[in-house]
Write a structure and sequence with these properties.
The chain is of the alpha/beta class. The chain folds into two domains: about 10-20 and about 95-255, Rossmann fold (3-Layer(aba) Sandwich); about 20-85, no CATH class. It contains 13 helices and six strands.
Length: about 260
């Protein structure tokens, strides 16, 4: 039996792995300022916003929108309103697609089915088309289209069905533990944690142990994808030889030379 996972499909989160997560930050700040202005309040304090954002990144759990609603709107129950209004401002301007995305997608094209599994507005499809990524994407599991958000397993199940494969033959690539790595792993998918955007700048050893591997960008992903441990070995091996740490990823690059939040 092979020690490596036989991969037929790879799914990408969008905010962080593909697009700069600053796009979401800009949208939610604009929304907070609008909602506060409607209540005759000054703009949201940027320093306090950054503190809450970083706290959520470091914990890798809990709702950022709830924390922001509680802090700046006075009620965590305003999370839904914040979410709905943010959607009207959440865009991905030209130039915010990470530079390693298209080379990665081109290298994977034809070798596996490629999909996106992301909590995003439907308009993200237009952005990916504009930026040249759309021809490589076979599965569009976008919450704004499908009608369900991660970490709900239904979104992953929908993507697997569309890709015509099973969890044991698929890998999910995301930058959050709570909405990407944990739900995907629970279903049996392989997991790659991309350490940019909403990932913590200095992840703990315990956090790094959760995905099959962690990388700082998508440069090495096309090769790494086919060296992930087979499903049977994931639970029994504490440190698979095929799993790269961020440090190993950076070292390899040096020698040889990747959403929105709940």
């Amino acid at each position: 039996m092979s020690a490596f996972r036989h991969v037929e499909a790879v799914f990408f989160d969008i905010g962080g792995p593909l697009y700069d997560d600053g796009n979401f930050v800009d949208a939610v700040l604009t929304t907070l300022d609008e909602l506060r202005a409607e209540r005759s309040l000054p703009p949201a304090d940027r320093d306090r916003f950054a503190e809450i954002y970083d706290e959520t990144r470091n914990r890798q759990q809990g709702s950022l929108r709830s924390a922001l609603a509680a802090e700046f709107l006075g009620d965590a129950g305003q999370r839904g309103l914040l979410h709905t209004r943010t959607g009207t401002h959440w865009t991905h301007p030209e130039g915010t697609l990470h530079s390693d995305v298209l080379p990665c997608l081109r290298e994977l094209h034809g070798r596996v089915r490629i999909g996106v599994v992301a909590n995003q507005e439907a308009a993200v499809v237009d952005a990916l088309r504009r930026d040249g990524a759309e021809p490589y994407v076979d599965v569009w599991a976008v919450s704004g289209i499908v009608g369900v958000e991660k970490p709900d397993p239904e979104l992953f199940a929908w993507a697997l069905q569309e890709a015509g494969t099973t969890a044991r033959h698929a890998v999910h690539v995301g930058n959050r533990l709570d909405t990407d790595v944990r739900p995907a792993r629970a279903l049996g998918l392989g997991t790659v944690w991309v350490l940019r955007g909403e990932a913590p700048p200095s992840p703990t050893a315990a956090q790094l142990a959760e995905p099959d591997t962690a990388v700082r960008d998508l440069t090495l992903l096309p090769d790494l994808l086919f060296r992930l441990p087979a499903p049977e070995t994931v639970e029994t091996s504490e440190a698979p030889e095929t799993a790269e740490t961020p440090e190993a990823s950076e070292a390899s690059e040096a020698v040889g030379d990747e959403g929105g939040p709940p």
